[in-house]
Specification:
- This protein is an all-alpha fold.
- 81% of the residues lie in helices and 0% in strands.
- The chain starts with a helix and ends in a 6-residue tail after the last helix.
Length: 80
């Protein structure tokens, strides 16, 4: 195996690892969005107290921050 072939193999292995990391981050983003949707749906319950709504809102904001961080990791060149 010549040096050029070895370099190509190394490059492709790095690309594969990057793709795996991207897939992992996208799955985490999806899970976070699902949780956010569940909180939004739960907030539609007219029987919730102000305290319950505040708790849901806090949880939603926390997930929003997690989502922003995941997006930064998934697309560091796009999001600053």
């Amino acid at each position: 195996m010549n040096e050029e072939t070895k370099d190509q193999i190394t490059y492709l292995k790095q690309q594969l690892e990057c793709s795996r990391e991207q897939a992992r981050l996208l799955e985490a983003i999806e899970r976070t969005l699902i949780k956010m949707r569940e909180l939004a749906e739960a907030s539609l319950d007219s029987g919730l107290s102000k305290m319950d709504r505040a708790i849901l809102s806090d949880q939603f904001e926390q997930l929003k921050e997690e989502l922003i961080e995941l997006q930064r990791k998934a697309a560091p060149d796009i999001l600053h």
